[in-house]
Amino acid sequence: MNEAVIREARNLPAEPLALAELAATEAPRAPAFIVTIYGDVVEPRGGMLWMGTLIECCARHGLNESLVRTAVSRLVGAGQLEGVRIGRRSFYRLSEPARAEFREAARLLFAPPPVPEDWLLCLSDALRDADLPLPWARLAPSVALAPNREDIAPVAGVLLRAKQLDGHGDLGQLASERWGLPGVAEAYSSFLARHGALRDLLAGPVRVSPEDALALRLRLVHDYRHAALSDPRLPRAAYPHDWPAEAARKLFVTAYVGLSKLAETHVGTEFLSPDGHLAARNDETEWRLFQLRREAAA
Q1: Contacts of 171 (CB under 8 A, 6+ apart)
Q2: How far is CA 120 from CA 132, 157, 170, in A?
Q3: One domain for residues 96 and 29
Q4: Contact 79, 97 (CB under 8 A)
Q5: 158 is in which domain, residue-wise?
Q6: Over the range 56-82, which residues count as b (16 or more CB within 10 Å of their CB) and which as e?
Q7: Does a structural domain hold residue 245?
Q8: Which residues form the Transcriptional repressor PaaX-like C-terminal domain (predicted)?
């Protein structure tokens, strides 16, 4: 869609604007978007998905059948998807390693841990030749720093807990350089710009179709996941005052909850597994919504 059409769409009511933004956005990479579909829709329902449903869902986002089939083949080859043929139909599910990976991502999306307050400092000569796992950052050949979070894997060496003393040094500059925060901020800002029209859509009286609601929610999850997974989740003092993560999180929570009732209606009527349609809702999807509603209320 060219810029003139987009500018014209911005003068339309909220519903066409939100959908025009979706149509104007460049198609996502097929393999990553297919993983988003499985993580958001299929995996929490514990099922498999018919290839035909996957093709139809991806078509709404500018991905044609050839791209989808090629991406699925690559995901199977990479061990992320597993397939089974029943009659003339092919069905796919996430492999166990991919399920474990997305469970961790789902925790970040739907029940994020508290923001850390301080740091872990590791001192060891062995760090000189070590490949440090993220979000550990090397400060010197034998010194590494990471946010003090429960999910941080320790590295070998003397491990200390550290806290910055006010007025000593520029923590923000250090964090920006070591963790590439400008790129993370750009990902959050792009998410806000791309999905900001959902605020008006959900606040107004206009309703979208179940199919459109699911399309909007899938891209919401896809783009927010990209930004959130790139964020090292440092103590708040390490970020600039205008850090966009909080606004992005608020938009994600509000929009996901607001779109889900209609989106799940579409899942329950159109998404096919070997046992029939996937459930519109189950305990896992209700838990996700409960967590987000509780976060919004807080």
Answers
A1: 164, 237, 238
A2: 13, 11, 18
A3: yes
A4: yes
A5: 119-162
A6: bbbebbebeeebbeebbeebeeeebbe
A7: yes
A8: 179-267
Alpha helices by DSSP H, listed for 119-209, are 171-179, 181-195, 197-203
Q: Which residues of the chain have pLDDT under 50?
A: 1-16
The phi-psi region of residue 33 (left if phi > 0; otherwise alpha if psi is between -120 and 50; otherwise beta) is: alpha
Q: Please name the residue that has the structure tokens 């604007």.
A: 17
The answer to the question of residue 43 being in a domain is yes
What is the structure's pLDDT at 132?
Answer: 92
Find where tokens 């923001």 sit: 115
Rg (CA), the chain: 21
**Nearest CA-CA partner of 126 in 149, 147, 151, 143:** 143
Q: Is residue 92 part of a domain?
A: yes
Q: Are residues 9 and 134 in the same domain?
A: no
Record the pTM.
0.89
Distances (CA, A) of 215 to 13, 58, 108, 118, 290: 19, 9, 21, 39, 21
Residue type, 49: L
Q: What's the pLDDT score for residue 203?
A: 86
- Is 65 domain-assigned? yes
Integer Cα distance of 161 and 145 in angstroms: 10
